[in-house]
From TrEMBL:
<protein>
    <submittedName>
        <fullName>Glycoside hydrolase family 3 protein</fullName>
    </submittedName>
</protein>
<dbReference type="InterPro" id="IPR050226">
    <property type="entry name" value="NagZ_Beta-hexosaminidase"/>
</dbReference>
<keyword id="KW-0326">Glycosidase</keyword>
<feature type="domain" description="Glycoside hydrolase family 3 N-terminal">
    <location>
        <begin position="32"/>
        <end position="326"/>
    </location>
</feature>
<dbReference type="InterPro" id="IPR001764">
    <property type="entry name" value="Glyco_hydro_3_N"/>
</dbReference>
<dbReference type="InterPro" id="IPR036962">
    <property type="entry name" value="Glyco_hydro_3_N_sf"/>
</dbReference>
<dbReference type="InterPro" id="IPR017853">
    <property type="entry name" value="GH"/>
</dbReference>
<dbReference type="Pfam" id="PF00933">
    <property type="entry name" value="Glyco_hydro_3"/>
</dbReference>
<comment type="similarity">
    <text>Belongs to the glycosyl hydrolase 3 family.</text>
</comment>
<dbReference type="GO" id="GO:0016787">
    <property type="term" value="F:hydrolase activity"/>
</dbReference>
<dbReference type="InterPro" id="IPR019800">
    <property type="entry name" value="Glyco_hydro_3_AS"/>
</dbReference>
<keyword id="KW-0378">Hydrolase</keyword>
Length: 467
């Protein structure tokens, strides 16, 4: 994997907060370079008009940018942090114990978030509030009874996701039995394993059964399972994957919280343990820090960890693929249909270390000049013209070669493809768009027939490249 490709992959699992009510230039650059998205906080929101312009600008930077926010109703809201949420909190809904009402409220909250440009609502809270002196959960929980919490969590997940946003049940494996706020220091749950499973784990099983697309970790130690915080514990996260059968995106709670060590170290440990999306946190509250430097340092730490072998490249690729499938509603269906539409000739799977070249393409007026969606996934090098091909292929000796045509072919495109095939007849030619019936014939080729992100993902899958 080339350095630019590795850095883009590392960035694609990082979710920072930022300062301001418009998109900072540094954030625009990092999003364009692959950063997963952002987490909005109260300081980013002025009113409905402003936040819609902000989220629109974020989404315009690149297809697939994720905008997330803590929207729980009650006391925890970002969109209405000044005036207060218009939606009742979980404790009120639990006291009412009307699952239809809970689903209706969640659907309304989800519709509000969707209209504001939010993709992922970081809720509902699935913690069982079994400790009356809990300083951080309290009214954010549906109650102290696991069965009650579970049925309302499931209703909330269904309501949110029916409104077109992804739900994120939190805080796994359960934060309700603690007397310590993980924003400040590391809490412990000291119950025996049987008690823990019956009390704290059960509502997360209900959330998974209801189809929640995300689960957020807690920075808590469950002593019956592991001495490490859940966010960095393979055993605890394995419980979510293996025992509960969750196959969606695992999101970390904020890595700037007091319960965790240095956020760069926490990010590496969390990714290695099985977290897919790394939330850095709020650069304004409670203690301010440099938002740009924090995001860059976490990405740098992930890149270094993969290079050193502290994190397996396959683990990063797996996390990035899960996050990418979350980024666009219906992405899984779209990619599946696009994959079925492929025309594939020969064995097109690329061996590790393959070299990809991006041929120049004609610009369609309707589509405009758009960057290649496949090239970043392959770490492809842009080829200005056919004269540049021999030098590029010299550096690819002994490795697989692919040449990507993104969009419509023209004379310059054909000359590049012809030059590649003349030197490397085994090269894979990938048309992300229509086939070039006037161009050279390749023994190994992929044709998507139309462009776009789903087509790029389908081509990457066919080539055996993580996306």
């Amino acid at each position: 994997m080339t350095d630019p490709a590795l850095r883009r992959l590392a960035a694609s699992v990082v979710l920072p907060g930022f300062v301001g009510t418009t998109v900072p230039e540094w954030l625009r650059r990092e999003l364009d370079a692959g950063l997963a998205g952002v987490c909005l906080f109260g300081q980013n929101v002025v009113d409905d008009v402003q936040v819609r312009a902000l989220t629109g600008a974020l989404h315009d930077v690149r297809d697939g940018v994720l905008v997330t926010a803590d929207e729980e109703g009650g006391s925890v809201t970002r969109l209405e942090s000044d005036a207060g949420s218009r939606w009742p909190g979980a404790a009120a809904l639990g006291a009412l114990d009307d699952v239809v009402a809970t689903e209706q409220v969640a659907r309304g909250l989800g519709a509000q978030a969707r209209a504001a440009g939010i993709d992922v609502v970081l809720g509902p809270v699935a913690d069982v509030n079994s400790e009356p002196d809990n300083p951080v959960i309290g009214e954010r929980s549906f109650g102290a009874d696991p069965a009650l919490v579970g049925r309302h969590v499931a209703s909330s997940v269904r309501g949110l996701q029916s409104a077109g946003v992804a739900a994120c049940a939190k805080h796994f494996p359960g934060h309700g039995a603690t007397r310590v706020d993980s924003h400040l220091s590391l809490p412990r749950v000291d119950a025996d394993e049987a008690t823990y499973r019956a009390r704290d784990l059960a509502p997360f099983a209900d959330a998974v059964a209801a189809g929640t697309r995300c689960v957020m970790t807690a920075h808590v130690v469950v002593s019956a399972l592991d001495d490490r915080p859940a966010t960095t514990s393979p055993r605890v996260l394995g419980l979510l994957r293996d025992d509960l059968g969750f196959d969606g995106v695992i999101v970390s709670d904020a890595l700037d919280m007091g319960a965790m060590p240095r956020r760069e170290d926490a990010a590496v440990a969390a990714l290695a343990a099985g977290v897919d999306l790394l939330c850095i946190g709020n650069p304004v509250f409670p203690d301010g820090y440099d938002d740009e430097a924090a995001a860059r340092s976490v990405v740098d730490a992930l890149v270094a960890a993969v290079r050193s072998g502290d994190v397996a490249g396959e683990r990063l690729e797996q996390a990035a693929a899960r996050v990418a499938s979350l980024a666009v509603p219906g992405a899984a269906l779209g990619a599946d249909v696009a994959h079925r539409a492929l025309t594939v000739t020969g064995d097109v799977a690329l061996a590790p270390g393959a070299v990809a070249l991006l041929a120049p393409t004609e610009v369609g007026i309707a589509a405009g000049r758009r960057p290649s969606r496949l090239a970043p996934l392959l770490g492809a090098v842009e080829v200005p013209d056919a004269n540049a091909v021999p030098a590029l292929l010299d550096r690819a000796a002994g490795r697989d070669v692919a040449v990507v045509v993104e969009g419509r072919s023209g004379p310059a495109t054909r000359k590049v493809v012809e030059a590649v095939l003349a030197a490397r007849s085994d090269a894979v030619v990938v048309h992300v768009g229509p086939a070039d019936h006037d161009g050279p014939t390749a023994a190994r080729s992929v044709v998507t027939h139309a462009g776009g992100l789903a087509a790029a993902w389908a081509a990457a899958d066919a080539l055996g490249v993580a996306r």
